[in-house]
Specification:
The structure holds two protein chains of two kinds. By secondary structure, chain A is mostly helical. Helices cover about 95% and strands about 0% of the residues of chain A. Classes of the chains: A mainly alpha, B mainly alpha.
Chain lengths: ~140, ~250
C-alpha cells in the first residue's frame, strides 16, 4: 500500500503539466471572458445610469419650463383681466358721466321751459282770472 | 483472463497493494495509476477545450458549466488567499480541485474493475499514495515559493513569530502539512473504495448503494478540503503572522 517509487515524481510532473496546459486552454481564456463580460455589464450599466440621469435632468428641465410657462400664462391672463377691468371701469365712469351730463342738461332745459311756461302763465294770470271771474259771477259783476 | 481460484465473484475482488508495474529504465512505476490519471486529465482537457473553443458573451452548454467551475475555484482561492493576491494562484488551486474531484468521482462512478489488468486493478488515481503525496508536496513547494516570492528571506520570520519558543512547532508544521494533506485524501478515497468493495463482496445488490452515495459525497468534500487547505497554506505563507500589517 505504501510503496513509493518513480510514480511520485512523475505524477507531480504530470500534474504541473496539466496546470500549465489548463492555464492556457481553460483558465486564461475563461477568466478573460468572465472579465470581459463583467466589463461589458459594468459599462452598460454606467451608460444606462448616465442616460437615466440625463433623462431625469431633461424631464426636470421640461417640468420647470412648463411651470414657468404656466406662470407666465397666468400672469398674462391676470394682466389682461386687470386691464379689461380698468377699461370697463373707465368706460362705465365715462358713460355715467355722460349720462349725468345729459341728465343735467335735460333738467336744465326742463327748468328753462318750466320758467318760460310759468312766465307765460303769469302774464296770462290777469286775463285768465278775469275770465274765470266773469264766468262765475257774470259779466256785470266783473266789469 | 485468469482468476484466482479463491474468488467466487470476479466482480468483487479486493486487492490492496497489487500494482501493475511498468518498467521505465530502471525505475518502476504504477501503470494503473497512470492509465486512470491520463483518462482523468483527458476528460478535463476535453471539457476545457470544449468550453473555450467557442467563447460567447452569453454562455451556454459546456461553457456555462466550466464557467461555473471556474468561478467556484476562483471564489475558493479568493476566500483563502485574499482579493489582492489570488489571481496567479487560481490555476494551481483550481486544477488541484478539478483534478482531485474528477479523479475521486471517476473512482466512485466508473466501474473500472470491469476492465481486467494482468495485475492490480484500475481505481481512482487518488487511491494511490504516490499521487496524493505528489500533490501534497507540490502544495508545500507552492506555499514556500509563494512565501519567498512575496516576502523574500523575511519569510523565515514567521518561524520565530510571535515567539522563538514556537520554532520547533513551526518547523514541524511544514512536515505535518503535506503529511496530513496526502494521508487525508489517500485514506478517505482508499477507505471508501474498500468499504464499497467489502460490501459488494458481502451483499452484491442494493446494500452498497447508500455507501456509494456517501462515497460520492466524501469524494467531493475531500477535493474541496484539499484545494481549500492548499489555498489557505499559500495565503498564510504570503500573509505572514501579521508582521507586515504592523508596519503599515
Amino acid at each position: 500500500m505504501f510503496d513509493f517509487d518513480a510514480t511520485l515524481p512523475l505524477m507531480a510532473a504530470q500534474f504541473l503539466l496539466l496546470v500549465a496546459i489548463l492555464n492556457q486552454v481553460f483558465y486564461k481564456p475563461l477568466t478573460k471572458s468572465l472579465d470581459d463580460r463583467d466589463n461589458y455589464i459594468r459599462t452598460n450599466n454606467t451608460e444606462a445610469q448616465e442616460r437615466l440621469a440625463k433623462a431625469q435632468r431633461l424631464a426636470q428641465q421640461y417640468e420647470q419650463e412648463l411651470a414657468n410657462t404656466r406662470r407666465q400664462a397666468q400672469s398674462v391672463i391676470a394682466t389682461a383681466q386687470a386691464e379689461a377691468q380698468k377699461t370697463a371701469a373707465q368706460e362705465l365712469a365715462e358713460v355715467q358721466r355722460e349720462v349725468q351730463a345729459q341728465f343735467q342738461q335735460v333738467q336744465q332745459e326742463l327748468d328753462q321751459q318750466k320758467q318760460v311756461a310759468l312766465q307765460a302763465l303769469e302774464s296770462q294770470v290777469g286775463t285768465l282770472s278775469r275770465q274765470i271771474l266773469t264766468k262765475l259771477l257774470g259779466t256785470e259783476l266783473a266789469s | 483472463m485468469m482468476h484466482q481460484s479463491l474468488n467466487l465473484l470476479p466482480l468483487a475482488k479486493l486487492e490492496v497493494g497489487h500494482h501493475l508495474y511498468w518498467q521505465l529504465g530502471n525505475l518502476k512505476i504504477h501503470g494503473q495509476v497512470f492509465i486512470t490519471t491520463w483518462i482523468v486529465m483527458g476528460l478535463l482537457l476535453i471539457a476545457a477545450i470544449a468550453a473555450t473553443r467557442n467563447i460567447e458573451r452569453i454562455p451556454k452548454g459546456i461553457q456555462n458549466l466550466m464557467e461555473y467551475a471556474l468561478e467556484y475555484v476562483r471564489d475558493l482561492a479568493k476566500n483563502q488567499i485574499g482579493e489582492k493576491e489570488y489571481r496567479p494562484w487560481v490555476p494551481f488551486v483550481g486544477t488541484l480541485f478539478l483534478f482531485i474531484f474528477v479523479a475521486n468521482w471517476s473512482g466512485a462512478l466508473v466501474p473500472w474493475k470491469l476492465i481486467h489488468l494482468p495485475e492490480g486493478e484500475l481505481a481512482a488515481p487518488t487511491n494511490d499514495i504516490n499521487t496524493t503525496v505528489a500533490l501534497a508536496l507540490l502544495v508545500s513547494l507552492a506555499y514556500f515559493y509563494a512565501g519567498f516570492r512575496k516576502r523574500g528571506l523575511g519569510y523565515f520570520a514567521k518561524y520565530i513569530e510571535p515567539t522563538p519558543i514556537l520554532l520547533p512547532i513551526a518547523i514541524l508544521e511544514d512536515f505535518t502539512k503535506p503529511l496530513s494533506l496526502s494521508f487525508r485524501l489517500f485514506g478517505n478515497i482508499l477507505a471508501d473504495e474498500l468499504v464499497v468493495g467489502v460490501l459488494v463482496l458481502l451483499v452484491p445488490l442494493f446494500v452498497p448503494l447508500p455507501v456509494m452515495m456517501l462515497g460520492l459525497f466524501t469524494s467531493a468534500i475531500q477535493a474541496l478540503v484539499f484545494a481549500t487547505l492548499a489555498a489557505a497554506y499559500i495565503g498564510e505563507a504570503m500573509e505572514g503572522h501579521g508582521g507586515e500589517h504592523e508596519a503599515h
